[in-house]
Amino acid sequence: MKKKISLIFGILLMAFLLIPNTKVFAEGTAQDYATGEEVQKLSTFLVTTGDEKDLKNYVTYSINVASDADSNNVEVIFPMTLNQKGILNCAAAFLDGNPTTSYGDFGIYSDAACTKPIDYNTYNYLAMIPQKGTYYFKFSVSDYSDEKPEDGYFFGFSSNFFSGADRTLKNNTWSLTGIEAQKPTFYKITVAKAGSLTINLDSEYSSTITLLNSSKKAISDATTYYTTDTKAVYAVGKGTYYVKVTSNSDHYRIKSTFKAITDTSGTTKAKAKKLPAGKISKGLVLASDKTGKVDWYKFTLTKSQTVNITFLGDVSSGEITLELYGNGFSGSVTDYINTVNSDRSFSVYTMGSTKLSKGTYYIKITKKTKNTSGAYSLQFN
To answer: Is 69 left (phi over 0), alpha (psi -120 to 50) or beta?
Structure first.
């Protein structure tokens, strides 16, 4: 993601060269490059989804630093008010056309006197904004020549902003976050019924994801993902949840997608859900379920035959266990799923035979730990 952003602002810096360094606006002021309006206060563009089109939105200014025949060092300072913490993605350039004897510099500060600089990574053009408030942007020029320009010195400045604030996620919509690495961000999600909750995370470095309840208490394991394209899946009931993310990246994109699923299992062995041959049955092991909760299924063989069980699912926290019971054996056939896109399908074998004798068999689905959750499907052939 950083490479993509750097490329955009590399193009932007080249565009600065097109800004004329003639005196078309007052010295010591900034001019909105899009509207031509002269301003004394800067603004920026809040990036939301973080896709390629959104990242190309920014606010650009031409900055005129007034020259002073009696001073070798001149500067101009502009405030910018930001209503949340995050990362300011910005670029500043001392424009071609300024005197070759002059040198331009740029800095961001948290105080009007410009004595407290903000951490600013000039390589990636990223400025960490620790909290909401007003920040100050100083453009300064050093020129020790005898001839100073009458119309001032010119900079180009452009920026957009990545919010680091906690927020509510919209279903199936990417949201861009900019925050100090390893600082947590909390995302609120509300679902109207039971189903699977998928969290996608697009980051440059590893990230840790934890599912929390409405009181922000962990109801999943804290899982660290080392891939840049992360997918975590949980099973949740109706209610409000939070997703806690800490990342080694200073900016990343996150998306939540909810899919309603009707659990077709039986709650007791006596009420076990019948599995018709070839038909798919779906189930949920909710994050709120107690470890003693069991999903029950059954199938009946009218003759001795080979049996294949298709057991698929998505689990990002803990393990969902399957046990097969029937006709003289109990739990001797077991399997489990514990990853996203798990496929633990198997053929049933008994001692000395690849076929099961006729009769009724039961499948028991349980969660291994309190923090286990996930969605699964069963099929008997």
So the answer is: alpha
